[in-house]
Amino acid sequence: MLLIPCPYCGPRPELEFAYGGEAHRPRPADPAALSDEAWAAFLYERANPKGRHRERWRHVHGCGQFFNVLRDTVTDAILAAYPVGAPPQELNAGRERQERGA
Amino acid sequence: MTRPHFSFLSLLRQAFLGEKALAPHWPARPPKPAYDVIIIGGGGHGLATAYYLAALHGVRNVAVLERGWIGGGNTGRNTTIIRSNYLMEESEALYEHAVRLWEDLSQTLNYNVMYSPRGVLMLAHTDHDEHVFKRHVHANRLAGIDNEWLSLAEAKAYCPPLNTGPDLRYPVRGAALQRRGGVARHDAVAWGYARAAAALGVDIIQNCEVTAIRRGADGAVSGVETSRGPIAAKKIGVVAAGHTSVVMAMAGVRMPLESYPLQALVSEPVKPIFPCVVMSNTIHAYISQSDKGELVIGAGTDSYVSYSQRGGIHIITEALAAICELFPIFRRMRMLRSWGGIVDVTPDRSPIIGLTPVPGLFVNCGWGTGGFKATPGSGHVFAHTIATGTPHPIAAPFALSRFREGRFIDEAAAAAVAH
Ligand SMILES: Cc1cc2nc3c(=O)[nH]c(=O)nc-3n(C[C@H](O)[C@H](O)[C@H](O)COP(=O)(O)OP(=O)(O)OC[C@H]3O[C@@H](n4cnc5c(N)ncnc54)[C@H](O)[C@@H]3O)c2cc1C
Ligand SMILES: [Zn+2]
Hints:
The complex is a heterodimer.
Chain A: E1 3-6, E2 10-13, E3 18-22, H1 36-44, E4 52-58, E5 66-72, E6 78-83, H2 95-99
Antiparallel strand pairs in A: 1-2, 3-4, 4-5, 5-6
Chain B: H1 8-16, E1 37-40, H2 44-57, E2 62-65, H3 89-103, H4 105-109, E3 120-124, H5 127-142, E4 148-150, H6 152-158, E5 174-178, H7 186-199, E6 203-205, E7 210-215, E8 221-226, E9 231-232, E10 235-238, H8 244-249, E11 258-267, E12 277-280, E13 285-289, E14 295-301, H9 313-326, E15 335-345, E16 352-355, E17 361-365, H10 375-388, H11 402-405, H12 411-415
Parallel strand pairs in B: 1-2, 1-10, 2-6, 3-12, 10-17
Antiparallel strand pairs in B: 3-5, 4-5, 7-8, 8-9, 11-14, 11-15, 12-13, 13-14, 16-17
Helix pairs in contact in B: 2-7, 2-10, 3-10
The structure holds flavin-adenine dinucleotide and zinc ion.
């Protein structure tokens, strides 16, 4: 079970949270102008990386807030948690910390 | 190398010889510089594809490239439930095609895959379950696929260990039964296809990880880079299950897939006690008994994308809690092992089989939590697709382009869970 650092409440067990999928996917500004390819890409294609992933979580059984997490999908280690609206976390953020084994 | 033919007499002879004269099932050849077709991924689906390419389409200059050992992915990690009672017509055709191939697969491959149609019982716990399952029964009847509704008493008679009392959190109300459903031996499926394919000239190359897909000036594929050097081919079939997004990214193709951990566990072995396969989608537990005597138990997926091949402990704890409620006689059994696989899930919970935007590149993926049952059918229609360059009629609706066209095969809405 993951221990997820809610930016508002601190570290809590995964059971208190709901996963929200890949983060930083803004809705197209002008949907009517989108081609079918672009719509399909927005709705269905995902990075699904083997490695670092920026993803959305919601603390449903806590403060109720949405926030984003940077997690390594190979080790499941959580490298950063940051509020919605903050710029996308660099994919190599926390790399040093992890390499030091902290 | 001459492949031994397995028969009752040959097995008896081996028994007296102490199995000393058993030849390897397939030769371990190094990769050649070029092939007509490269299959990336030595799971059941990839090996079956190679076998049908060679056996039915005369395409024998084929290599199956596997980064680990064959069957070491989801093929060797699954709970082996086989059934074809899906809701959508396209799925009915695909999974029924597979079940028909399962029926004489041991004879076809001359390898005992231990297909055992002992019946798959799907439990209904709620009003909604009952409606959905009855709808499936009627849809299947129209398609000529067996599936029947059992009352509570009939379900109890079919599976005596089942707790049909009122004391469960979600009491059982009845069940859908597909009598031709069942299980098979997962490793034997990989080995049987590998052995039969190799006998027709296919190279089975293990410990060979594909690290890049090469493309020519025209954009078409020209080969792959691997941990064992470059290999050329004009046709490449990607059959990499949980790693499909990673492999397709090597050709610059983004996929409508997410990879999730899915877990299973087995108990200590006991004498035969459990007559069939039981599935409960609502309380998330799947169970059958292997011929070795172990209870084979499947759990749900984790909620998040991961390639870790291990899931959260709370997921298997919940599955075991459901098993203990459904089958109180198993409460004191000990579990021996648990493990995880990485399953590739599509938005409509149906697989993707067919052509891709890259010429010469074919893909067969998205089987998610339930593709073992489809192994023979999947390989059969994918081999046709690769050999002819046009989708097999059964595979055609499962094209990657369906997401752009909005033609979903929405088993997600139909079942919520698909094993
Ligand atoms: C716990 C669990 C329970 C399941 N239960 C059932 C069930 O009861 N019934 C059912 O029908 N289905 C079930 N499934 C799903 C089923 O296992 C899969 O859908 C099916 O086995 C997929 O077969 P495959 O050959 O496509 O994939 P795999 O067997 O995973 O084969 C893919 C192969 O590709 C290889 N590969 C990946 N990347 C590369 C690369 N770069 N280079 C070379 N090789 C590569 C992998 O090593 C792997 O061996 C279950 C799955 C799991 C994990
Ligand atoms: Zn919180």
